[in-house]
Amino acid sequence: MSEKQTERRAQIEAAAFELLENVGYKKASMLEIAKRARASNETLYAWYGNKQALFSSLISSNARIVEDSLQEAVSGNANPDDALFDLGKLLLEFTATEKAIIINRAAVADVQETGLLAAAVEKNARQVMIGLIDALMAKLAASGRFRFDHGLREATEVFIGLLIGELQMQQALGAIPPLASHEIDDRAKRITDLFFRLYRFS
């Protein structure tokens, strides 16, 4: 794919998200996305095939941004304790803010139609997130100050469960608003401290 095509796809996906935010998943049509992106309907169908594939591509693009940021938090911080807090903040920024809520609502709305968006979220967001947290848990274990008797994956799942839990679903249903910046900081610190109390032995 040429640089120009990559840039054009980014513009189309930005227009798709804008429409998704304004009218919701059910009313977001390929034709309306094409109009907003000032592209032909034929181009959208040639590149994406259908609406579900377009929004799946949007999710994948967002996941790559998430992965780069999380990777930097894991590898760029010499202190694994601080890295876990930074990672927690980033995870909340990518899962509990307005953009994430809109995408999750679209995935919920598509479940009865194709389920493709939920699969894209699982593959591109959750699996990437789990792999990077596993790597950080390995660093914590290697420091000699943490003991994960039931394995790194269980520790990862515990951290995700404590940090996010039912938050995404409650937000997707409108029961909880997007988290503000100070709420993200407070939650990340509280959960990181709790995780340390559970697993740190020195």
UniProtKB/TrEMBL annotation:
<dbReference type="Pfam" id="PF14246">
    <property type="entry name" value="TetR_C_7"/>
</dbReference>
<keyword id="KW-0804">Transcription</keyword>
<dbReference type="InterPro" id="IPR050109">
    <property type="entry name" value="HTH-type_TetR-like_transc_reg"/>
</dbReference>
<feature type="domain" description="HTH tetR-type">
    <location>
        <begin position="6"/>
        <end position="66"/>
    </location>
</feature>
<dbReference type="GO" id="GO:0000976">
    <property type="term" value="F:transcription cis-regulatory region binding"/>
</dbReference>
<dbReference type="GO" id="GO:0003700">
    <property type="term" value="F:DNA-binding transcription factor activity"/>
</dbReference>
<dbReference type="InterPro" id="IPR039536">
    <property type="entry name" value="TetR_C_Proteobacteria"/>
</dbReference>
<protein>
    <submittedName>
        <fullName>Transcriptional regulator, TetR family</fullName>
    </submittedName>
</protein>
<feature type="DNA-binding region" description="H-T-H motif">
    <location>
        <begin position="29"/>
        <end position="48"/>
    </location>
</feature>
<keyword id="KW-0805">Transcription regulation</keyword>
<dbReference type="Pfam" id="PF00440">
    <property type="entry name" value="TetR_N"/>
</dbReference>
<dbReference type="InterPro" id="IPR001647">
    <property type="entry name" value="HTH_TetR"/>
</dbReference>
<dbReference type="InterPro" id="IPR009057">
    <property type="entry name" value="Homeodomain-like_sf"/>
</dbReference>
<keyword id="KW-0238">DNA-binding</keyword>
